[in-house]
């Protein structure tokens, strides 16, 4: 997030080149936050619980700061399904491990289910921004949000595994048939909470591997670093277009 803040500052012409920006959440180790002009760059940790904590606290902060016209975008990495490594996926819907567009949570011991649709207009804007850049393959598709990195995503290389390679392939191909193009661990709670609060939100993730071909990332580190910059480039281009039209 620090690197993204520096990149935003550079692209928007804010501050000196390479200038460090202070972590304005330095009193806590739950997450870090950097403010660069109109952009908040916040880490959210790994998985739904960590993302939910950050969202509750940042959404309250935005409310009390009387912010308006806020757009939330998650940037990150993911495992692709049927895509070349380095492809960027803009999420249409976040779906659960059964491919349903739902986020389920127990509240006071009762099952609460919220929808996980993301802002369609925002997703189309982002897709157009990628077309403007013309630098890397970008698709729009569903993102499967799981509660676990290993068994929850059908990996064969965890400490526990009760299924076969054939079982995994059948599951991933069923996911692809249901419109799923990548897998990660945060999108569903982001979609559900932002939708409940009336906040436009999007998820933009690069794929580091094609899960149909294996469970391990095999690309060299320098190439992975370039892949990880792709969502940042796309979203900064989006920010610049939005600000130019304001």
Automatic annotation (TrEMBL):
- Write out the GO biological process terms: nucleotide catabolic process; uridine catabolic process
GO terms of molecular function: uridine phosphorylase activity
The UniProt record lists the Nucleoside phosphorylase domain at 18-240
Q: Which domain of life is it from?
A: Eukaryota
Name any one Pfam family assigned in the record: PNP_UDP_1
* Entry binding sites for phosphate: 30, 74-77
Entry's Gene Ontology cellular component terms = cytosol
Listed CDD domains: UP_hUPP-like
Query: For substrate, which residues are the binding ones?
Result: 153, 155
Q: Of which family is this protein a member?
A: Belongs to the PNP/UDP phosphorylase family.
Name the NCBIfam families on file: euk_UDPppase (TIGR01719)
The name this protein carries in UniProt is: Uridine phosphorylase 1
Q: From what organism does this protein derive? A: Myotis myotis (Greater mouse-eared bat)
């Amino acid at each position: 997030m620090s690197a993204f803040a520096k990149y935003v500052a550079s692209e928007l012409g804010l501050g000196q080149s390479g200038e460090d920006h202070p972590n304005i959440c330095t009193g806590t180790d739950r997450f870090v936050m950097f403010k660069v002009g109109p952009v908040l760059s916040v880490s959210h940790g790994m998985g739904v619980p960590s993302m939910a904590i950050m969202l509750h606290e940042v959404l309250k902060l935005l409310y009390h700061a009387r912010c308006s016209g806020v757009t939330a975008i998650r940037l990150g990495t993911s495992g692709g399904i049927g895509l070349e490594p380095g492809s960027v996926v803009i999420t249409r819907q976040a779906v659960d491990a059964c491919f349903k567009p739902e986020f389920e949570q127990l509240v006071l011991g009762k099952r609460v289910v919220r929808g996980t649709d993301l802002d369609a207009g925002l997703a189309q804007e982002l897709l157009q921004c990628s077309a403007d850049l013309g630098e890397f393959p970008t698709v729009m598709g569903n993102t499967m949000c799981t509660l676990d990195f290993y068994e929850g995503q059908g990996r064969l290389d965890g400490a526990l595994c009760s299924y076969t390679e054939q079982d995994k392939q059948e599951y991933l191909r069923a996911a692809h048939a249901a419109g799923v193009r990548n897998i990660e661990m945060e999108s569903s709670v982001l979609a559900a909470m932002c939708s409940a609060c009336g906040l436009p939100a999007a998820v933009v993730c690069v794929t580091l591997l094609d899960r149909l071909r294996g469970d391990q990332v095999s690309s060299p580190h320098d190439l992975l670093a370039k892949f990880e910059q792709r969502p940042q480039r796309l979203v900064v281009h989006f920010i610049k277009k939005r600000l130019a039209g304001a």
